[in-house]
From TrEMBL, chain A:
Belongs to the phosphatase 2A regulatory subunit B family. Transmembrane segments: none annotated. This is Serine/threonine-protein phosphatase 2A 55 kDa regulatory subunit B. PANTHER family: PROTEIN PHOSPHATASE PP2A REGULATORY SUBUNIT B. GO terms for molecular function: protein phosphatase regulator activity. GO terms for cellular component: protein phosphatase type 2A complex. It comes from Callithrix jacchus (White-tufted-ear marmoset).
TrEMBL record, chain B:
The gene is ENSA. One of its GO terms (molecular function) is protein phosphatase inhibitor activity. The keyword Cell division applies. It comes from Callithrix jacchus (White-tufted-ear marmoset). The keyword DNA damage does not apply. Keywords: Cell cycle, Cell division, Cytoplasm, Mitosis, Phosphoprotein, Protein phosphatase inhibitor. One of its GO terms (biological process) is cell division. GO terms for cellular component: cytoplasm. Protein phosphatase inhibitor that specifically inhibits protein phosphatase 2A (PP2A) during mitosis. This is Alpha-endosulfine.
Amino acid sequence: MRAGGGNDIQWCFSQVKGAVDDDVAEADIISTVEFNHSGELLATGDKGGRVVIFQQEQENKIQSHSRGEYNVYSTFQSHEPEFDYLKSLEIEEKINKIRWLPQKNAAQFLLSTNDKTIKLWKISERDKRPEGYNLKEEDGRYRDPTTVTTLRVPVFRPMDLMVEASPRRIFANAHTYHINSISINSDYETYLSADDLRINLWHLEITDRSFNIVDIKPANMEELTEVITAAEFHPNSCNTFVYSSSKGTIRLCDMRASALCDRHSKLFEEPEDPSNRSFFSEIISSISDVKFSHSGRYMMTRDYLSVKIWDLNMENRPVETYQVHEYLRSKLCSLYENDCIFDKFECCWNGSDSVVMTGSYNNFFRMFDRNTKRDITLEASRENNKPRTVLKPRKVCASGKRKKDEISVDSLDFNKKILHTAWHPKENIIAVATTNNLYIFQDKVN
Amino acid sequence: VAGGPECDVCYWLVEDTQEKEGILPERAEEAKLKAKYPSLGQKPGGSDFLMKRLQKGQKYFDSGDYNMAKAKMKNKQLPSAGPDKSLVTGDHIPTPQDLPQRKSSLVTSKLAGGQVE
């Protein structure tokens, strides 16, 4: 792991994928981004139900000033739009989450989910094909057996690499509400899926059964006060998982305690000063993402205006809080009117858990170095797309006189949101998704 | 839940937006919102946001409603869909022609096709 924190790193543009034109087709809106466990593969999902997987090229030994580029490896239609006639419910094909399984053999496996159905996909390579059949021509037509006078043994011959994706399992009909999270257990045998009110536990081999482990649906729906917003398994303890709520709380549950984990083992909540409460308090406290650190000692939550780091041993307040875009606090009225206040930003850790990253508006994204306490704002824009040019830090001017190179809050484009970012598990390579483009940035290699 | 019995009454007073000193920016924003939408937050029962969130995707009518309305209006013309096709039930009776085609994307993602830098 290269030394240095978020600000000692000089981030450079590496690649951008996607259409150049501003007219964005709905299907092209990127809805999830995820590196696999080695970082060699990078998957994206979009609103059109498609998955695109990029593979990092082997490092070019001659051109050692840059790491391998990410090029398209495989692409497939994961989910299709559906209609539930019984409930008059339209089921979007949008991919909400992708999670990779650790690699066990030559093939790669990932889970992808839309609002209702989770699918296990196998991505495998084929670089040879059988030739020399006795009863079939090379083009597949059957030969007349009476014309066969000699026998030969078919052999495998090399062919151009073909990458095939096939659905191996379909986990359906277990969620009444909309799935927001999937998380693979450290036992690599089970995984959880969470919707607004329930969390289910699945076995990767079994599609016709799943166990409900959390159910927060009230007997009377009028008493509903909070929903589940995200859930994740602990990276090391296979019995532990957390789920976050729209009220800004995180509950840690231990599956050894009982079959139904409605009673939490730990409740993480920062006390609020009642005199600070406003109409917006609950909305902006809603947690949009929760992620364990790689070490498993900490977890990070993202709410509308901040990122918080929690020590699992301390429930009553986070150990660190980072303001993402505090200047928006005086814009909450208009952000409520244009629905931006409900945007769900994700967050991620770097491989050594020393830096965290999250997105913002105007195609800005933010990094916070936990050691140096410094932060930086960068922009994903095609204007900066000369490879190996160091990105210039951005600054938003909250009020008063705007300095040169600063951008005022009122000039921010709230349609340009970075909701999804991912950090390579080992290297300083990040993937940042704007509405319909995927940017890859790397640290400057000398 | 905002607006419920546990909130202080003073939250809902419309403050003079010029007197911003000492007032949290959040409260000033709340006052702005309240001035625009006076009825906001006063509905009893569960949170509106949550219910809306849970019902996402529910677009179409109950076929029972549809048939009953059709029977009632046997001799009249069905009202055609207005510009807002996302209206749920009520006076708007969607016809099969109004429903948008639900086709999956057959086109390859532009991330896989487009220019590589």
